[in-house]
Specification:
single chain; mainly alpha; 36% helix
């Protein structure tokens, strides 16, 4: 079976590998697919997610005005958010994170704006 990735998909997966490429416990590389969840599968820390999304929006020219960072990475009280990541409403600490997959990043990059808020 041959898997073909387009340039956007490959670029996003390569970007994710920079932030979550290897498990610190097993030293094995994470398998990153379009179905991978940034929270559940990759266990991306909010601090890493913050940097990842800042780079993602710039690199793939994605309009971030509709993106609510705290919807996917609830506020732990320790982060300062850049202009594009400031949520419309602040969620309380401890609120359950919504699922965010690699496919969501790919589809939004293709569209040029965040599709899921």
């Amino acid at each position: 079976m041959v898997i073909v990735m387009n340039d956007i998909e490959k670029g996003i997966i390569d970007l994710l590998r920079q932030y979550k490429g290897v498990s610190i416990f097993t030293l094995k590389q994470y398998l990153i697919t379009p179905d991978s969840d940034l929270n559940k599968d990759l266990r991306l820390a909010p601090e890493d997610a913050y940097d990842l999304f800042a780079e993602y929006f710039e690199k793939f020219s994605v309009d971030c005005s509709k993106f609510n960072f705290l919807k996917y990475f609830p506020n732990d009280g320790g982060l300062l958010f850049p202009r594009c990541l400031i949520p419309k409403s602040v969620r309380p600490t401890g609120e359950q994170a919504e699922s965010i997959t690699v496919k969501m990043l790919i589809e939004s990059a293709k569209a040029g704006h965040w599709l899921y808020d």
